[in-house]
Structure to design on (745 residues):
């Protein structure tokens, strides 16, 4: 009878081959790890460190403990800016996820190949163009008195809209311009998701007599749910971080009507030279986004289906 | 704060917080490499800044054998953000010898103890008297903070009214005269506002101003109403005075009367002016750097209309010596060189390649009209500071960037009709009271 040998303790009795595999894995991962440490972890820790100081970039900083975090609760403008950010971000998210899906489904319907190419290119093109350059052009188009958009609307008998100067319309302009720019990405991801759905499933449903609406809800939507979830998470993070559009189009105004948290944070850091407070805003904003993403992951289990 | 930890934190934090990019093409080796090297930081607002600074640096190196000048261009959407980016650069360990500043930056560099005043050089240097004698006193006063002369001014801009001569001709309106008043101005602007396509809305507007800067925006009107946005010592805000209220109310009325369009940033104003959609706007000399190369010459200038008084609103730029300079004497020689005849000629320019600011030396500025650089009324540029009262000191506190953005934010609400003039200025004053301090 041979004695059963105890398995080697993890990591201790690893064979030379396994150790080699581990080193190879580390080597392959090292560019990502180094990049993460330099561009994500170190800056985050730096911002956390600064959030406990009163520092204006040019003088010696003073340790102020939690003072910068206490200020967050008395800053009336911050609350207003959070409000405008949430409003614009949710609208951009909804447009990207819902309208993006609709457009992707339409683009996957039967049409000449060249026409499909034209549509796909048209939607994707704004996504690859610089946000600042795009915003500059839109600023020209949306000028209340001399812009092309109001000129065309005037032809339809619609009175001039103060796209960039009114508290009501300025955030809507940001939503329109940002959605126009980013929806191409959502469409692209949706199309990839739609093309991954096996044709046999749809064909079987047709044989069973399911109409287009039933096929969408019973087959396409469930099969696409991981893609939708991915886009919800990505678009939430991106839409909460918009900067170029409000900066160029409206300078966050009028007042704070179209100001975003990132813009507000930037102004506190590099306008007021209040690095400590800006860092506190940054840290809390990061926590808000982490919580939002965690909530999305938690609830996604109820409606996301994986094969 | 522990210095090394602070630097580490800065490196990380700046990378995370800085949305704007700093285009730093500096050469550290050259900066610290010897007794005859200089590192200079400048605002890279466009190709003209780059070529102008390079030409000056090259000429200095040619005239001073063995010297090395390293230029560090820094981006920024306006002077305020440029200062913020320079501060970031300094915080990350850079130690320039000189940096370009505007008048708005004089208080900033002085309050942050960054600058080495040049009073001593002005007293001792044999060339200094001849130089300062050829520079308008206002340009020296504009860069003097608490008795310290921060820098010599190499180039400057006064705020004048640009008018499109073709639009005036088409509307049958006489060009404005130097002694025009606010009432004359308003009447002229109304005549120039026309609805050519008869859709019930104007398509040519009489006047507009920059929404993204206060100097070419509201300041000439505030100054001519005999007001200012800060006290004379630049230690407290004066944004809700009757004078400021009068100026802002006048501008708002131009919008509500349909004589001015909704305010827009300066770059958009240039385009609207060239294509005749706006008949008049206010700026310094810099628009000709855009207009003439584009072949647009149908314009002239006039000083702002007189209100309760007349004051020339101006801004200048210079290369102050920073305290971090390892070579302050050489830096002074460079500063002097920037106001030499050889260099100042580039600000005069030619009709094909005009300068984009006014030379600080009177003798050079007076040659602009002689060499034929448009506009026809070019002599007004220097005359306005030599012969007219000026707005000194600048309403430019040490926290200029925060000051300007606060003023502009409240003006947005006022000009959009979402806040009354009195409420808007009252709120502005409330916020400025913690920003404008000493």
């Amino acid at each position: 009878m041979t004695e059963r040998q105890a398995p080697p303790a993890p990591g201790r009795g690893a064979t030379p081959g396994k150790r080699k595999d581990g080193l190879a894995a580390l080597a392959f991962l090292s560019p990502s790890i180094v990049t993460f440490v330099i561009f994500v972890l170190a800056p985050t820790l730096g911002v956390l460190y600064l959030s406990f100081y009163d520092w204006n970039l040019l003088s010696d900083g003073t340790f102020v403990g939690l003072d910068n975090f206490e200020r967050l609760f008395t800053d009336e403008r911050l609350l207003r800016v959070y409000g405008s950010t949430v409003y614009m971000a949710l609208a951009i998210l909804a447009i990207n996820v819902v309208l993006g899906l609709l457009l992707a489904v339409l683009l996957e319907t039967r049409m000449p190949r060249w026409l499909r190419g034209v549509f796909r290119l048209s939607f994707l093109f704004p996504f690859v163009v610089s946000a600042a350059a795009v915003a500059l052009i839109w600023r020209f188009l949306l000028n209340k008195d001399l812009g092309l958009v109001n000129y065309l609307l005037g032809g339809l008998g619609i009175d001039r809209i103060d796209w960039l100067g009114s508290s009501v319309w300025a955030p809507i302009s940001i939503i329109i311009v940002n959605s126009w720019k980013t929806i191409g990405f959502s469409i692209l991801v949706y199309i990839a998701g739609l093309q991954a759905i096996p044709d046999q499933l749809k064909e079987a449903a047709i044989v069973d007599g399911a109409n287009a609406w039933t096929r969408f809800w019973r087959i396409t939507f469930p099969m696409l749910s991981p893609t939708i979830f991915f886009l919800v998470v990505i678009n939430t993070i991106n839409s909460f971080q918009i900067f170029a559009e409000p900066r160029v189009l409206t300078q966050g105004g009028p007042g704070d009507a179209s100001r975003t948290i990132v813009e507000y944070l930037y102004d506190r850091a590099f306008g007021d030279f209040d690095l400590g407070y800006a860092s506190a805003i940054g840290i809390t904003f990061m926590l808000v986004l982490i919580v939002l993403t965690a909530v999305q992951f938690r609830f996604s289990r109820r409606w996301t289906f994986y094969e | 704060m522990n210095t090394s930890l602070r630097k580490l934190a800065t490196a990380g934090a700046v990378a995370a917080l800085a949305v704007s990019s700093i285009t730093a093409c500096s050469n550290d080796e050259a900066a610290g490499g010897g007794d005859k090297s200089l590192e200079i930081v400048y605002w890279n607002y466009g190709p003209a800044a780059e070529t102008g600074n390079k030409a000056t640096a090259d000429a200095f190196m040619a005239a001073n054998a063995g010297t090395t000048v390293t230029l560090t261009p820094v981006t920024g959407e306006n002077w305020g953000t440029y200062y913020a980016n320079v501060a970031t650069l300094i915080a990350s360990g850079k130690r320039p010898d000189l940096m370009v500043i505007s008048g708005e930056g004089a208080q900033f560099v002085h309050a942050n103890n960054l600058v080495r005043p040049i009073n001593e050089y002005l007293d001792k240097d044999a060339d200094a008297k001849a130089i300062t004698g050829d520079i308008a006193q206002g340009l020296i006063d504009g860069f003097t903070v608490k008795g310290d002369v921060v820098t010599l001014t190499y180039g400057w801009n006064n705020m004048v009214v640009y008018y499109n001569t073709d639009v005036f001709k088409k509307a049958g309106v006489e060009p404005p005269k130097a002694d025009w008043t606010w009432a004359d101005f308003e009447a002229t602007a109304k005549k120039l506002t026309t609805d050519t396509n008869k859709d019930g809305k104007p398509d040519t507007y009489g006047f507009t101003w920059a929404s993204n800067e206060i100097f070419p925006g509201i300041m000439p009107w505030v100054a001519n109403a005999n007001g200012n946005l800060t006290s004379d010592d630049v230690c407290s805000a004066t944004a809700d005075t009757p004078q400021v209220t009068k100026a802002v109310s006048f501008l708002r009325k131009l919008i509500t009367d349909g004589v001015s369009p909704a305010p827009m940033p300066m770059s958009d104003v240039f385009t609207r002016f060239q294509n005749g959609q706006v008949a008049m706007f206010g700026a310094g000399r810099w628009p000709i750097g855009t207009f003439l190369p584009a072949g647009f010459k149908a314009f002239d200038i006039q000083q702002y209309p007189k209100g309760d008084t007349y004051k020339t609103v101006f801004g200048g730029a210079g290369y102050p010596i920073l305290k971090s300079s390892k070579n302050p004497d050489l830096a002074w020689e460079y500063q002097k060189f920037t106001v030499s005849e050889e260099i100042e000629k580039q600000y005069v320019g030619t009709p094909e390649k005009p300068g984009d600011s006014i030379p600080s030396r009177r003798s050079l500025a007076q040659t602009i009209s002689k060499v034929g650089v448009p506009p026809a009324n070019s002599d007004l540029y220097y005359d306005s500071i030599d012969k007219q009262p000026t707005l000194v000191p600048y309403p430019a506190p040490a926290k200029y960037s925060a000051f300007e953005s606060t003023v502009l934010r409240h003006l947005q609400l006022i000009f959009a009709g979402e806040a009354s003039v009195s409420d808007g200025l009252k709120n502005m004053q409330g916020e400025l009271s913690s920003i404008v301090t000493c």
Remarks:
- Residues 16-50 of chain A form the longest helix (35 residues).
